[in-house]
Amino acid sequence: MFRPLSPRTVRWRPIEGEGLEHLVITPHDGGIRVDSVVIGEQGDISYGVRYRIDCDARWHVRSFSVETMAGQRLALLSDGKGHWRNEDGDALPEFDGCIDIDLAGTPFTNTIPIRRLGLTPQSETAKLAMLYVPFDRFEPFRDGQHYTCLEADRLYRYQAEDCSFSADLPVDEDGLVIDYPGLFERLKA
Domain of life here (predicted)? Predict the structure, then answer.
């Protein structure tokens, strides 16, 4: 079982190309708050974004916002049960059933389903519908992802639903990704 969360700073860098993420995670209002800044590149497009994610104590995403340094912004709210709306309160039924989010350019959002699900090696593979946000255009879409626990509280397999990509993710005592093979490595903060 993962330890209770205490305030923490974590940094990752991409394996290829240039970039850096500086993330601060803290207990907040009975839940979890994450604030992060990411600079990186996707293909020929460089980006600089900051994001905030608020989860309840059981790691259900309740809100998130992502903003580019140029001011482009996306902010969505959730009831924690897979129903989303924009900041104006308009329902977004295309994301019904998406409990978790996946933000491109960061290994942190893998922590959310890992912590929320509490998988063990005896658990079946969890098949999830994710609300995915690419950093190059900020147009969210549904993405199927699978998570399997290989070693309790230590190693998890992420696999794209279409089997186009998979990675075994070692995590620390907080469920934060240590290394994301081929994509990210953690730095000393």
Answer: Bacteria
